[in-house]
Amino acid sequence: MKKVIITGSAGFIGFHTALRFLKEGFEVYGIDNLNDYYDPNLKEDRNKILEQDKNFNFIKADISKVEIKNKYHEINPELFINLAAQAGVRHSITNPEDYIKANIDSFLHIMEFAKDNKNLVRTLYASTSSVYGGNIRQPFQESHGVDHPLQFYAVSKRTNELMAHAYSNLYGTECVGLRFFTVYGPWGRPDMALFKFTKNILEDKEIDVYNNGNHSRDFTYVDDIVEGIYLSSISKKELIDSSFDSKDPSRSFCKSIIFNLGRGKPENLEDFIVEIENNLGKTAKRNLMPLQPGDVPDTSADISGLKDFSGYEPKTSIKIGVKNFIDWYKEYYKVNL
């Protein structure tokens, strides 16, 4: 049975990813520090579900501590999937130091482990569409420049991409970075729009709609995100950075690559809100606000690279995805409409 380490396993995406790898017959080692960035009860409840599977092993640990590398070597996995991070665009503006520890120090320990462990086949890690920063060309392509970040969360994730590239070039480690685009779905984070909108509408409170609602987002359902993660982990296609000239024998190949992971079909924010209203049977009270610092008006993913590499094909519309979230929300919080 193959072993996989999944960091952030009690988080939103990590939880769903762990479920998928358990279903596929992996022995999953989930690592999470269960911090209180948002309600830790939600993390505990996700973890309880995972622990019902005999092939799930939970380790409560802070991966920013250097000694975590000993645990990585003890497990000796074939795959490593790093989904632990300090997330949140707005939080990074007020608390940038959190992102050094959680996103950069932690990733350094993973890269140090990866270069020394010969059993490890591939390391996957979460990046973000936020790295595209001030880019205005749509859809975003991996070849577009990413040198104009608008907040420190994007800086920390771009740093991960550069670290992976350097370690791959130096030591031949296989690294796949996935730039997530606006992930949503059941068991989602309370600080994200879908969760906040649903909660406020049910409580007859206003919802803050930024940029006066003139946003479009490449909303991507969590099951599609997990599919992209899984397919990227098992793809047998060779990872070669095209920036190296394969005809030059003096240059080593860098086996590090980055893909957009989205739906590839951006939706207007207003249409997303309407789906929430339809499923709740209630009209939102909109508080229209200006564009927030660090935010961008629109995101759109070119996913052709990931399709070619792994066969990835997202399937879930916002109509289905929003309904699935609201069904979960009503059941989890015992809401009667």
UniProtKB/TrEMBL annotation:
Q: Would you say which domain of life the source belongs to? A: Bacteria
Q: Which residues form the NAD-dependent epimerase/dehydratase domain?
A: 4-231
InterPro entries (alphabetical): Epimerase_deHydtase, NAD(P)-bd_dom_sf
Name the keywords, alphabetized. Answer: NAD
Quote the protein name from its UniProt record: NAD-dependent epimerase/dehydratase family protein
**What species is this protein from?**
SAR86 cluster bacterium
